[in-house]
Amino acid sequence: MLIDFIRHGFSLQLFILFATRLFVVFCILPVHEFAHALIATKLGDPTPKQNGRLTLNPLAHIDPIGGLMIFLAGVGYAKAVPVNTYYFKDKKKGMALTALAGPLSNLILAFISVVFLFLSQMLFKDTLGSVIYWFLYYVAFINISLAVFNLLPIPPLDGSRLAAVILPDRYYYKLVEYERYLMYLVLILAITGFISKPIMFLSENIMRLFFNMVGFFFTFGR
Q1: Burial group, residue 181, by CB count within 10 angstroms (0-12, 13-18, 19+)
Q2: What gap in Å lies between CA 21 and CA 9, rounded to an integer?
Q3: For residue 44, which phi and psi values (nearest 5 degrees)?
Q4: pLDDT for residue 3
Q5: Which pLDDT score is estimated for 77?
Q6: Which of 105, 142, 121 is nearest to 218 (CA)?
Q7: What is the DSSP code (8-state) at residue 24?
Q8: CB atoms < 10 A from the CB of 138, how many?
Q9: Which of 85, 87, 137, 220 qualifies as a FRET site for 126, CA 20 to 30 Å off?
Q10: How many C-alpha atoms does 100 have within 13 Å on its Cβ side?
């Protein structure tokens, strides 16, 4: 986005992209982290609430560096929700459900965005309709991409917590031991585009599925 601004200056497309990333930082990421906190709390862990994370207030979840990266590079992160598996009856299952809640919230938001996208095309025309369409399109696609990205079985992503259910403890704890370094590796791979092709492929197919599902209901309802 920054490179586009330097090269081409301000444009409507750049404005929509900026608005979308603003929405990601202040709405999508907080919902993702809140989902983690909510499920962990429901499973008996008071840690998220004690740390002020059982809230939709974006200020409780935003990481300054991670948020800035989203604006500059399109890839970033929020503050991880602290969870204590000691409170779960089944530690692995509890951690897996807590981890799954984040990506699942992204997919739900994406589906809702597609529904409103179809509605907007019925209600608005011309430039306003186009702006709303592309804003909701980007919101839906970013949500799906975040879900796919977070489900990669690499620490510290949510997918690694799901992998813990399958992996033997000795292998999983070995991965966790190098979590800090793997986090930097994941960010580098994402920013450089090394893992963008498989993520884009999966995201585009899920997006197509959502469009087909919502489009079917709108067509059927006429």
Answers
A1: exposed
A2: 18
A3: 105, 0
A4: 54
A5: 79
A6: 121
A7: I
A8: 18
A9: 220
A10: 10
Tell me the C-alpha to C-alpha distance, in Å, between residue 60 and each of 5, 44, 49, 56, 194. 30, 21, 11, 8, 31
Q: What is the DSSP letter of 91?
A: H
The identity of residue 140, as a single letter, is A
Catalytic residue annotation: 33
The reported pLDDT for the residue numbered 219 is 82
Q: Which residues share a beta bridge with 78?
A: 62
Q: Please report where in the chains the tokens 């879900």 appear, as a residue.
A: 147
Question: What distance in Å separates the CA atoms of residue 17 and residue 11, rounded to the nearest whole number?
Answer: 10
Residues forming beta bridges with residue 62, ordered by sequence position = 78
Per the structure, how many domains does the chain have?
1
Per residue of the chain (222 residues), what is the pLDDT tens digit?
Answer: 555 555 555 677 788 888 898 999 999 999 999 999 999 999 999 999 999 999 999 999 998 888 887 877 666 778 999 999 899 998 889 999 999 999 999 999 999 999 999 999 888 888 888 889 999 999 999 999 889 988 988 777 888 888 777 777 776 666 666 666 777 777 777 767 777 788 889 999 999 999 999 999 888 755
CA 164, chain centre distance (Å): 20
Share of the chain above pLDDT 90, in %: 48
- The domain in which residue 157 lies consists of 2-220
pTM beyond 0.70: the answer is yes
